[in-house]
Amino acid sequence: MTRSIFILNRIEDPTCSQVATRLGISDGSVQKHLSKALLHVTG
């Protein structure tokens, strides 16, 4: 899920709300997954 959200956000460039709607999850969940992905990429 984290990988999918990261790819959607970086390649297709929708807002967190658009990603959340598309995947049927909350905005907060999208933000949590993006934070997790960014820590992995930069860490």
From TrEMBL:
Molecular function GO labels: DNA binding; sigma factor activity
Domain of life per record: Bacteria
InterPro entries the UniProt entry points to: RNA_pol_sigma70_r4_t2 (IPR013249), RNA_pol_sigma_r3/r4-like (IPR013324), WH-like_DNA-bd_sf (IPR036388)
GO biological process, one term: DNA-templated transcription initiation
Domain RNA polymerase sigma factor 70 region 4 type: 3-40
A Pfam family hit: Sigma70_r4_2
Official protein name in the record: RNA polymerase sigma factor 70 region 4 type 2 domain-containing protein
Organism: Rhizobium lusitanum
